Amino acid sequence: MTTIAFIGTGIMGKPMAENLQKAGYQLNLSESRTRAPASLVEGGAKTYPSNREAVNDADFIIVMVPNTPDVEDVLFGEDGIDPVLDATKTVIDMSSISPIDTQSFAARVNESGAAYLDAPVSGGEVGAINATLTIMVGGEEGTFEKALPLFGAMGQNINLVGDNGAGQVCKVANQIIVALNIEAVSEALVFASKAGADPARIRNALLGGFANSKVLEVHGERMVKGTFDPGFRIRLHQKDLNLALTGAETLGVSLPNTKSAQELFSLCAEQGGEDWDHSALIKAIESLSNHNIRGE
Fold it and tell me: Which of 23, 79, 158, 285 lies deepest, with the highest CB count within 10 Å?
């Protein structure tokens, strides 16, 4: 049986790990930071007090943590897994982190003989639960083919987009597009509501036209109903847009609308909304417009 050490069982990681378990994989879980989810333990996952112990007999190591320093800590920190890596193991980082640092991490892991894939995901908590994630992979084709059954247990739209780092570049591009879509839907619904129209009816009408999008469908409904419990938190989208803006500065690329979206997320954060769902960007537009589409 293939054994997977899964490090990072949070909002996204937990359902991803559950789907791997349902597909028949043996899971090793590290409790170096937090206790392993009861559902996974009850399903047969083994628990270990440290990352290194969890990785020892694993064929694959999946890392799903919030940010670049967290990935670096898992790989090379005090309880880093690097000393126990060898040619029998494949590291798959499914976090959303810096493409440049990813290339460095991959090179260091490869020195141990282990293979490395960067494989960030899109689809939010719903996609993680339903195993419908989009998975953007950077790495060698042979390693990708070996890991493909694992990806198939967690997602549907799975693509090898290039060498190590390319998966993270793709995810940054994804987050730019999602943020600007959220901003566009927010502006449209606030405009419609301020003009005296019912935003719920406007949204329903637009679902049948060229303006339709997954953001209008899912997040537009959140905006109308005011349900901003996180699937994907504003602070995490801020992190991703910061990667985009930092990378753009290095490359000499202009991203004016990405900068605008980041400023709106920052306005939400100033209102205490770092942990709101990113669809709550509409609250920044509402604040600037002195108009709430829900009449709150």
Answer: 285
Q: How many Å apart are CA 62 and CA 8, to the nearest integer?
A: 8
* Nearest partner of 115 among 147, 141, 89, judged by Cα: 89
Two tokens at 104? 């460095």
How large is the average pLDDT for residues 56-71?
A: 96
Structure tokens at 166: 């390319």
CA dist., res. 148 & res. 146, Å (int)? 6
Tokens 């449209």 locate to 188
CA distance linking residue 244 with residue 99, whole number of Å: 10
Structure tokens belonging to residue 151: 């990806």
- At 35-58, the pLDDT tens digits run 999 999 999 999 999 999 999 999
For 203-213, what is each residue's pLDDT tens digit?
A: 999 999 999 99
Query: Which residues neighbour 227 within 8 Å (Cβ) at sequence distance 6 or greater?
Result: 221, 277
